Amino acid sequence: MRSVRRSTRALAVAVSLLAVVAGCSRADSTDSAAPAATTGGTPATEVRLGYFPNVTHASALIGLDKGYFTRQLGAGTKLTPTKFNAGPDEVSALLGGSLDIGFIGSGPAINAFSKSDGETVRLVSGATSGGAQLVVKPEINTPQDLQGKIVADPQAGNTQDVSLKKWISDQKLTGVNVQSEDNSVTLDQFRKGAVSGAWLPEPWSSRLVAEAGAKVLVDEKTLWPNGKFPTTVVIVRKDFLTQHPQTVQAVLKSVLDANNLAATDATEAKAAVNRQLKTLTGSALSQPVLDRAFENIELTTDPLASQFPQLAQDQVTAGIAKSAAKLNGFFDLNSLNAVLTAAGKPTVSAAGLDRK
Prior knowledge:
The protein is about 40% helix and about 15% strand. Helix 10 (about 245-265) packs across helix 14 (about 335-340). The protein has 14 helices and eleven strands. The strands form two sheets. Strands 2-1-3-10-4-11 form a six-stranded mixed β-sheet, sandwiched between helices. Strands 7-6-8-5-9 form a five-stranded mixed β-sheet, with helices on both faces. It has helices at about 10-20, 60-65, 70-75, 85-95, 105-115, 160-170, 185-190, 205-210, 240-245, 245-265, 265-280, 285-295, 310-315, 335-340, and strands spanning about 45-50, 80-85, 100-105, 120-130, 130-135, 150-155, 175-180, 195-200, 215-220, 230-235, 295-300. By secondary structure, the protein is of the alpha/beta class. It has two domains: about 10-130 and about 230-340, D-Maltodextrin-Binding Protein, domain 2 (3-Layer(aba) Sandwich), CATH 3.40.190; about 130-225, D-Maltodextrin-Binding Protein, domain 2. One of its GO terms (molecular function) is ATPase-coupled transmembrane transporter activity. InterPro entries: ABC_SsuA_sub-bd, NrtA/CpmA_ABC-bd_dom. One of its GO terms (cellular component) is periplasmic space. It is found in: Cell inner membrane; Periplasm. This is Aliphatic sulfonate ABC transporter substrate-binding protein.
């Protein structure tokens, strides 16, 4: 798993030298402090944060469990976390103004930008690469074996729905019935034999493998250069980013804190995710499922911006959009790169998509 690795000693030096200028020191997971002020804007009195109860949202789950968000935001900012089960619902909350920042799939992130004509949201960070698979019944050995079968995904228009439908198009399959339903329902339907496969994010692909006898037909990593693709990113309402840049930086510092824990203490990072999943869903994952799910993801703040034009085109191929969304101006990585610089880490590229 590709994670952000940190040295506590190097961090202390970075904080002392850069906090005044950049206002974006990264606090160590065990020795954190309130964020320093940044130029422009004011701290928000509240930040409404969206996320999913999925392992692909591990940075959010770890940050909530370990108190990183609350610590970095400081006493003057209330954290209001909100759970979502699929991207389109979270998009509606962001565009409707009831959510400020969201961990979300790359597909719905593009949709949020496109639906608002590029005015409402900005992509400010990556969160997770990888962690999605097409898992099928043991007797399914080739794409053609899915002809006439039902294959499930989480929700029409979400990230996995686009990936599945694009793959079906590439394979020239004309008889596959795509059924969008809640992931827990998909698990139950797969056990009953009502669906023959599912394109799912972690931990659900691992649950079907470990608990229902599924096997992997396609790991989405194999479809992307170097096996990397943006499963989860962080988007922010543009007005919130403009008014409260230091609050956004505090959230991004918390993402680095979570990544640091995953890099230095994977056992505790997994436990933190599992505690949150039990709280949110009523049940924890088995250790084999949790371990497999973590093996399939990479926690990274790099949003892999250069892949977004292809992701937008994939929506057209999948029949989700009539034309590829224009993504110029979608990315604003200034806050993230300030945080990375203060932490002594390399900055990440917007691949030109920060310009109108």
